[in-house]
Amino acid sequence: MREAFLNGIDLFSPPKKAILRLLAEYASKPEEKEALINLCSAKGERKGVEISMLFPHPNIAGSKLYMDEIVEEHTGLAELLLDRFPSSKPPFGHLLSVAAPLQPRYFSMANSPLAHPNIIRFAFSVVRYTTAKGKHREGLCTTWLEQLSQHFLNSSSPTTPVHLKIFFRPTRVTHILLHTNLI
Fold first, then answer.
1. 164: exposed, middle or buried (C-beta count within 10 Å: 0-12, 13-18, 19+)?
2. End of a domain among 58, 78, 98?
3. DSSP one-letter code for 9
4. Which residue range is the domain that position 69 belongs to?
5. What is the rounded CA–CA span in Å between residue 143 and residue 125?
6. Which band of pLDDT confidence, cut at 50, 70 and 90, is reported for residue 51?
7. How many DSSP H helices and E strands does the chain contain?
8. CA distances, 154 to each of 99, 122, 125, 157 (Å)
9. What's the CA gap between 20 and 9, in Å, rounded?
10. In angstroms, what is the C-alpha Rg of the chain?
11. Which of 52, 74, 98 is the last residue of a domain?
């Protein structure tokens, strides 16, 4: 289970409506269930249930509410389960079957393997931003890389080895450069 949460499913990207339907199915509080159903629907039929405590604009419904509250605010599955809809307790296996997989993050090498054949360097910008409604967000991978790199930046002789899962993803440009005589 730990491996699935750390490396398998994406807990921080906005979930698809199918996941919200799953959360609604397992919500024990009627107002949370109805709010989740409202988020999933095209027109947002609320059937008279008051959801103003869950969303600041209860008159906005369906797809517009989904775009405003989930997509534009970059609300992830973890926040939905822990903060917004804590009564929803889907079985782990069911959640795992519909949750989006954690996607690889791509970075470009910042050095030449010809100059340093045993060293790979890459540059990254730490992703931090504030949403339109004032929520502070951070990039999952770049924030982790920043924390990881602090040990090396603050130490004159780092001794702790770091193991990262990396792979080479050739691009069209890489293919052209490898197969073209430039001189």
1. exposed
2. 98
3. B
4. 2-98
5. 9
6. very low
7. 8, 2
8. 38, 18, 18, 9
9. 15
10. 22
11. 98
Answer yes or no: are the C-beta atoms of 55 and 75 closer than 8 Å.
no
Contact, 33 vs 50, CB < 8 A? no
How many structural domains does the chain have? 2
Count Cβ atoms below 10 Å from residue 168 Cβ, excluding itself.
Answer: 7
Number of Cβ within 10 Å of residue 161's Cβ equals 5
Give tens-digit pLDDT for 91-119: 998 888 888 888 888 888 888 888 888 88
Question: Are 86 and 151 members of one domain?
Answer: no
Which residues fall within 8 angstroms of residue 153, CB to CB, at 6 or more apart? none
Q: How far apart, in Å, are the Cα atoms of 48 and each of 34, 35, 45, 92?
A: 9, 11, 8, 31
Are 132 and 150 members of one domain? Answer: yes
User: Is residue 164 a contact partner of residue 181, using CB atoms and an 8 Å limit?
Assistant: no
- Write down the pLDDT at residue 49: 44
143 and 84 both lie in a single domain:
no
Question: Which residue, chain included where needed, has tokens 């079957």?
Answer: 97
Q: Are residues 15 and 93 in the same domain?
A: yes
What are the respective helix, strand and coil percentages of the chain, to the nearest 5?
Answer: 40, 5, 55
